[in-house]
Amino acid sequence: MNNLQTKILKALNTNKLNPTKLGVRKWYDYFIQTDELVWSRNLWEGYQIHIYVDESKSHHLATYWIGYDLNYNPFLKIQ
Known about the structure:
By secondary structure, this protein is mainly beta. The protein is built from 1 helix and 5 strands, in the order αβββββ.
């Protein structure tokens, strides 16, 4: 895992990054956009996080999907 992945996982585990806050916001030195992932019949699946360097979204760093296992531990899926 790279630095950004470990930073996100650590922030999720310590509740410093709340994926339920949808929209665009500044997080540390990055701008993140959080969207909820929903199946066709309103079945919740997780969250998608886009990470950008600046507010204009001109430089995209990464996209992550956050899901939870049966014990509600977060895991990242990388695009």
